[in-house]
TrEMBL record:
Subunit structure: Homodimer.
Keyword vocabulary terms for this entry: Flavoprotein, Oxidoreductase
Keyword Oxidoreductase: yes
Protein name, entry field: NAD(P)/FAD-dependent oxidoreductase
Residues annotated as domain FAD/NAD(P)-binding: 3-281
Organism listed in the record: Paenibacillus profundus
Cofactor names: FAD
Amino acid sequence: MIYDCAIIGGGPSGLNASLVLGRAMRSVALFDNNRPRNAVTHASHGFITRDGITLAEFRRIAYDELRRYPSVDQLLREVVSVGRIELGFEVLDSSGLRVQARKLILATGAKEIFPEIKGFDPLYGKSLFNCVYCDGWELRDQPLVVVSEYPTVFQTAKLLLNWSKDLFVCTNGQAPLSSEQKKRLQSKGIVVIEQPIAAFIGQNGGLEHVRFADGTQIPRTAGFVTPKLVQSAPFGERLGCERTESGGIKTDEWGRTTVPGLYAAGDASCFTPSQLVFAAADGSRIAMGVNKDLAEEDFELSPDMITN
């Protein structure tokens, strides 16, 4: 058989796209390698009715709901290659299964590349995070550090003032802030440190100090570190998709890429903001775009449209 749509990626965008297409009575092959970007996250926040839900529980609920729709096939496998065929696309997974589909959604997400700072890994997801909206409430009124090498650190610091007035901004040897921006931050009591960070010091998942290259250190109990985001899978590039300036896959308002029949959803197309609720909503929007295009094609092929 040829599916109406294949979806690569079992994160919130891919799962919600599968739900919408299943409810539209479309046949769907959902590929999920079960390696989510937010695997270290203890809970997800900011999604009404799901605030504080764990990743495992979110996935369990999602897959239970998808089982209501028999046209959605859940394929818990790694995709190794994708190619164009006359009817659409062919997806090959790690077991050797080949699946053909008229349309293809890339919901493969983004991959975070954090600055290489000693001591980061044991603290990430416990006292160091990257999204202020996801974890700001839990860190409220604590002495915080913001580590970023990018100009967006100015906006991040302004946002965090609503959660804590005890802030240090560390740029890890880079100079993303203008003199005027540094003065404005300092006028609000925010300390800016530009020298390189040697290590995060802590234990049992809790940050205690930030140590700098000159040996000095500051006491902090938690903070936010800004990563660089890149595509987590190469399929968009291999199929010839155009990219945005930030590195996401370029799409129109319905998720269509520059490759006919190919769509991108969630973090694969828009790197920020990286919240579950945004990704799920994007999956719904793109699925509607896919169904719209399929309906247009089916209508044109309908026997009722053929005249003698």
